[in-house]
Amino acid sequence: MSTLLDVEDLRVTYPTRTGVIEAVRGVSFQLGRERLGIVGESGSGKSQTGRAIMGLTPPQAQVSAKKLAFDGIDLMAASPRERRALRGNRIAMILQDPKYSLDPVMSIGRQIVETLRAHERVSKAEARERALAMLEAVQIRDPARVFDLHPHEVSGGMGQRAMIAMMLIAGPELMIADEPTSALDVTVQLDVLKILDKLVAERGMGLIFISHDLRLVSSFCDRVIVMYAGKVVEQIKASELRNAQHPYTLGLLDCMPRIDADRHPLPVLDRKPEWAA
Fold it and tell me: What is the pTM (predicted TM-score) of this model?
């Protein structure tokens, strides 16, 4: 399997008045054209890892890595202009909540068309046609109607599908999905996952799926990275998650409710100081 993304010793720090906060500490992994899940609690560094790959960390953040390469391109040496050319074109990111990702004063269709025309020289008519086709690809039943709606006029699930359509319109090779289903109900979650699964298979994309839901990631992804306190504590095949070795991963698994067992109260994760060392 060819390597699409190579991350070695990625670090993201934030200087503050009381000292330096290490949000990401020495994260390393490789990604091919597969589905890689990154799981961990809030504050474990999952989203910061994704944003560092995209080049979307705030100006005050200090990002360093021994290697951060996408398809042979050194992202650490790339200029801001080169990074902008990659974002939305070859690398795309689905953010957590469409309410904060879609422009409230622009129609959904106009935003998708704008994304496409930022990266490709196409006419307005062709851009509209491709945007409608992409809305249909993400299982929106009446794309022509949704094209003219504003974000507040659609449900959360439809807004998330529109966001996925916007991120896919330019045909990216790498997709980073940052908790794309956390704001959705269970049935809509399954629909969104089916869309992502189909598109990854058909387009041959690499997918980084960031989530706090270990069960969801284990059933959807090929491999899983478990993060704690900014570090990777375990990498394992999703199918072998039950054979995890690190006590933090085992603790997360043990904290999940089970239908076939009456466990009240649920176990509490017993954190060890050495996990964060």
Answer: 0.89
